[in-house]
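Sync notes, pocket subgroup
Present: LS, DG
LS reminded everyone that the earlier model was apo-only. Rerun requested with adenosine-5'-triphosphate included. Inputs:
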Amino acid sequence: MDLVKLNKERKYIETITPKDDGKKVTIAGWIYDSRDLSKIRFIVLRDITGKMQVTAFKDKTSKEIFEAMAKTPRESVVIIKGTVKKSDKAPDGRELIPESFEILAEAEQPIPIDVSDFSKTELPKRLDYRFLDLHRKKIQAIFKVQSTILQSYREFMTKEEKAIEAMFPSIISSSSEGGTELFPAQYFEKKAFLSQSCQLYKQMLACSMEKVFAVFTVWRAEKHNTVRHLNESRQFDFEMAFADEFVVMDVLARCVQFIIKKVMEENKNELETLEVKLKIPSIKYLTFAQVTEIMKKEKVHIGKTDLSGEVEEKLNELYPNTIIFVHDWPLAGKPFYIMPKGKELSAGFDAIYNGMEISSGGQRIHLPELLAERLKIKGLNPKDFEHYIDSFRYGAPPHAGWGIGLERLTMLILNLKNIREAVLFPRDRDRLTP
Ligand code: ATP
Ligand code: MG
């Protein structure tokens, strides 16, 4: 097979319409379905853009093609050349009458998971065979949407915010946010860790480059097994100089609205496939104290320093399709680097969307002495954070920022029940392959 030639000739299936009646085309893809009515044979061919019925007749089509169409198993990869025919009976009003049929790769049988549109194969098994799971339109739709989310994040940051995209190291020395949840790694003679966030680096960068963002992979060695946590996840990070938490909450709100608008515009088909009706969310600001009052009224238990899943769900019930910012967060519930606001409160916040936290953020401490003090209060040793503290000694402006989990956001935009659905190859407590 001359693949250069194929790439020039080949038509993506979605581009072929009834108007192409009579045209000769080449299509390539996977056999999705086949039917045999003795005198007439159908194949449905699927490529990344869509499906097309291929119809052969015993008395008109060549014997070779007619046989091959019956013999080639589903999910095999084939190239078919033929003539487009307008047809009221065929899906999308057109079919292909084949004139040549080439098998590129025959799929072994039996196929280990059900890859039909109505697949009932359970998630763990599907993830074992993720490469096959990705033959499914629904699964492809999830990752097409995720691609839009990723690109529109970058577009928002570069075009709307004029922020600078940054890369940070993923292998770090022991000094990080606190050593308990890190995966250890051997770095020559030294002990190192996989990064659990780019917090310290993005702050250092914002203190010179002012507005920065990153798409950054993080590893968290938490032994949880929940539908909202992964041990390897991707973060949208943002950090901005001369800003407090309200400035960056506004950026976050516009960012998520921008992303959702893009998905609504660019992924109409995928949203339909996934049966998701999206609307641009509205914005609500509440203090932690206000949320506490509301929960008392609603008779939902609320902790003193954090919001439980139940509280997050209740907030969604009260304010559906809303990005809810919970700010003036109790100081004890936020990390050492968050700026205190008086004795009890902080400049930290969480953002809740569709019943779950999508982001945490806040104004950071840019004052070295205060930072050392807060580290000690949190039971950490300022000596381990020398580089970090020193970075604020020579002209560091006030700054603020946040991080959104990419898989978490995808899950909530698409109403997926398990975060593992929103990552191609999940890493969780039990899964290190494929
Ligand atoms: P949660 O309370 O949901 O466990 P967190 O407060 O521990 O999250 P942060 O450290 O604030 O998480 O991380 C910022 C964002 O990254 C979260 O709001 C969430 O969107 C995402 N995130 C955090 N932990 C995970 C994880 N284990 N797997 C996937 N995404 C995560
Ligand atoms: Mg958080």
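DG: The chain has two domains: 3-105, 132-162+246-422.
LS: The radius of gyration is 27 Å.
Action: DG to write up.
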